[in-house]
Input
Amino acid sequence: AESYTRAIDLDPTRTESYISRAHVYGSMGKHELEVADYDSAITLMPHNPIFHGRRGAALILLKRYYEAIDDYSVLLALKPTFLWVRVIRGDAYAAVGRNLEAIEDYSAFINLHPEYAETYVSRAKAWHNLGKYLEAIQDCDQAIELTPDIGEAYYQRGLSREKLKMAMPAVADYRMAAQLGDQNAQKLLKK
Output
C-alpha cells in the first residue's frame, strides 16, 4: 500500500493508484480504507460502473447495506446488462429486510438465467420472510430440481413447511439438508 500512497502523493488525480491501493486494503481486510480509496476513484471517474461495484462489495463486508444498494443501483443504471448485480443487490435488500425489492431483483435475474439454483434459494428466503411459505416452497422445489444436492434448499423448504404445520415433511427436509452438510439443519436436529 505504501508504494501506491507515494504514487497518490505525487499525482492525486491518478485513478489507478487509488484502485490499486483499495485492492491491497481489501486483501488486508481494511475495508474502511478500501471504501475511502474507491470514494476517491469515483470522485475522479463517477461513471465507471466497476468502481461502484467494487465499493459496493466492500460496503457489504462492512454491513453498510444501504450504501451498497446505492452503489449497485448506480452500477445497474450505467450497465443494465450486468444482471449478476441484481442478485448481489437482492442480497443487500434482504439483509435490511426489504424483501419485496430482493424478490424483484432475484426474479429479474431468474427470468434470464433460470439455471442457477442458488438464486431460487435466495428468493425463497425472501418469500419466507414475507410469510409467503408456499412461494418459498416452490422456489426450493425448483432449486432442488436444478441441483439435488443443495442442502440449503432442503433446509429452507423445511422452515417453510414447518410454518405451514407440515411437521413430517419439514423434518425430512432438515434431515436431508443435514446429510448434505447444511450446518443450520445439523444444529437444528441436535436440539
Q: What stands out?
A: The chain has twelve helices and no strands. The mean pLDDT is 97. Residues 31-44 form the longest helix (14 residues). The radius of gyration is 20 Å.
